[in-house]
Design a protein that fits this description.
- By secondary structure, the protein is α/β, with parallel strands linked by helices.
- Helix content is 40%, strand content 21%.
- Strands 2-1-3-4-5 form a 5-stranded parallel β-sheet, sandwiched between helices.
- Strand 1, helix 1 and strand 2 form a beta-alpha-beta unit.
């Protein structure tokens, strides 16, 4: 069982809950945040998060802005953007998870990102 630590950032409680349950079932340790600012606070307090799974559309800083801040402040932490929008230019991000997604797709994408250099 892996024990990687993941932070899920989404302003929709239902999405946070579904991701948390799925990822914990897959063996990950999971934290959740409803916005980017709070996520950055979690990362400052607990520097052992290995991946942040963030929604694109968040109140305040959006997901791309959050990823940019994480890359500056926590370069060891990997990121994965999730969105329901197909009109976003993803060249900024390395990986993206399109909503709606299933359990297998979520876990597979997480494993891929965590195993990448």
């Amino acid at each position: 069982m892996n024990r990687h630590k993941i932070l899920v950032v989404d302003d929709e409680e239902r999405i946070r809950k579904i991701c948390r349950i799925a990822l914990e079932y897959a063996g990950y340790r999971v934290g959740v945040s409803q916005n980017a600012q709070r996520a950055l606070e979690f990362l400052e307090k607990e520097d052992d998060y290995e991946l942040v799974l963030t929604d694109l559309n968040l109140p305040g800083l959006n997901g791309l802005e959050l990823i940019s801040e994480i890359e500056k402040r926590h370069p060891h932490c990997k990121t994965l953007l999730m969105t329901g929008s197909l009109s976003v230019n993803y060249t900024y991000t390395k990986d993206c998870l399109h909503k709606p997604f299933g359990f297998v797709e979520l876990v597979s994408k997480i494993k891929k990102v965590l195993s990448s250099p």
